[in-house]
């Protein structure tokens, strides 16, 4: 029946970044192929076709039927911006194969503070993407089944728990689970476009019948401000484009090439779907109506009000609910890089089995759950905050890439720098437009949250810096030396556990003190323990520590402090013997005395804590 010891240093805190490099020999099968990357990292962008075109139409509807005629031009401008972003992020993937996307670019070429602004904006966008995607998916469900509307918050939390659970199993498992819904959705949208292009008039208008139009009756002039608002609203379709560049290490070798193929596939699919749906909106002269989405009207008009219509609606509902997976694929990697640079706690850089950044996944789920509850599961409460952060990241990334090409001066560097420079101009204008047009609708929260997050990053970084200075990291430490050692062993009763504890103690220390905490009401038990100890005669005296309040930790900590004062220069260790059950459920049977003692000693003394685990045979 072997016993094992584990020692916990009271002051030990790693301030060097933990190793986060890929384990190619064992973990490659837990990384993504290019096709899996589309389903794992692109759901946010692909699902945006369900609300991107509608956001444009709702703004242009203020100018009446004439305003809706600008749907295609506005969509083409967004598609053009998409093309620049895809081309730019393919270059980011090549230049920064360790992932991090906008954060990695800004860190290297724009300075530390700018990189933190980029990271903060991306974190906010990723969190909002989860909340918006989940609420939009549940909204589609409650539209089909109105009786569930009152339970929408619980439904949102249920969907969030499902997506979180899948991602805790690994990014590849999440990709495999979402391949079919992604394929059904993409094929459905492409079918609507392909069939609709061959029709001169809608097959059916049943989806919109009986619903009031939101088209303005007193048409206003289509001015630049209205077009800018429509462009800003439609830019919500571009969120998620950066996720692939953030998660390059999640791909199988050659990771750069696979990530670039995924980025290209994402951009191509998204562009075709956005433009195709915009063409059909103009072709069928659709008007936005209350209670029915534009995508539902397009499915009705192209395919008819039949089983195909319901397939599209169901696929849209599922994919919107699962679009949160983009954030679960990209944000934990970004948080890992921030942790590696000492701007977040180091536990976010740790990878569990299947290459999962478990703590990043759980943190994202927790914050998203708070947002879902706070918003009451209402998509419209969250959408005004959406897409602002990501455009800040887009712009800073492009500016950083211009500097990258000017320094690298590789082949065709001027052409690449021009591409990124023009992209920076476009995304910078888009960031200003999106923030200005949505400021009073809630965008001010993002404007305040970004500097608040940056301040948190700086606070964590300063804390790690102080710990590093206290531990003399980066300097040659003093030579180790041997101190006199004194071991304190808490004892509650005589058993084989006591024998194991004292055996380990006399092996570790020059002097051993066995101590027991007593209470006046337990006088008989205390006297019996002293008699048994004397008969046993282990060669170690038993010291009694009276306690008037049945405290365990406080008397022991006080005794350790007294020993430290009486024996200066002596290394004091408190050895706590505990049973290691053979079944997890048996932990519920333990009294947790060891944890209480360890907490008190760690809090009030500088003693080393040694937790001895005595393993039981299977019972």
Number of helices: 24
> What's the end-to-end separation, in Å?
13 Å
Q: Going across the major beta sheet, what is the strand order?
A: 1-6-5-2-3-4
β content, as a range? Answer: 5-15%
Average pLDDT rating: 79
Point out poorly predicted stretches.
Answer: 1-26
Name the shape in a single word.
elongated
Question: Which class do the helix and strand fractions yield?
Answer: alpha/beta
Q: State the order of secondary-structure elements, H for helix, E for strand.
A: EHHHHHHHHHHHHHHHHHHHHEHEHEHEHE
Summarize the helices and strands and which ones pair or pack.
Elements: E1 3-8, H1 24-27, H2 34-41, H3 43-47, H4 52-60, H5 64-68, H6 71-95, H7 101-109, H8 112-144, H9 152-168, H10 171-196, H11 224-234, H12 243-246, H13 255-283, H14 294-303, H15 307-322, H16 325-340, H17 358-375, H18 379-382, H19 388-408, H20 413-470, E2 484-490, H21 496-508, E3 511-518, H22 523-536, E4 542-546, H23 553-566, E5 570-580, H24 593-604, E6 608-615
Parallel strand pairs: 2-3, 2-5, 3-4, 5-6
Antiparallel strand pairs: 1-6
Helix pairs in contact: 2-10, 2-13, 4-11, 6-11, 6-13, 6-19, 6-20, 7-8, 7-19, 8-9, 8-15, 8-16, 8-17, 8-19, 8-20, 9-10, 9-17, 10-13, 10-14, 10-15, 11-20, 14-15, 16-17, 19-20, 23-24
Give short descriptive properties of this protein.
about 625 residues
Can you give a write-up of this model?
This protein is of the alpha/beta class and 619 residues long. It has a 6-stranded mixed β-sheet with strand order 1-6-5-2-3-4, sandwiched between helices. The protein has 24 helices and 6 strands. The chain starts with a strand and ends with a strand.
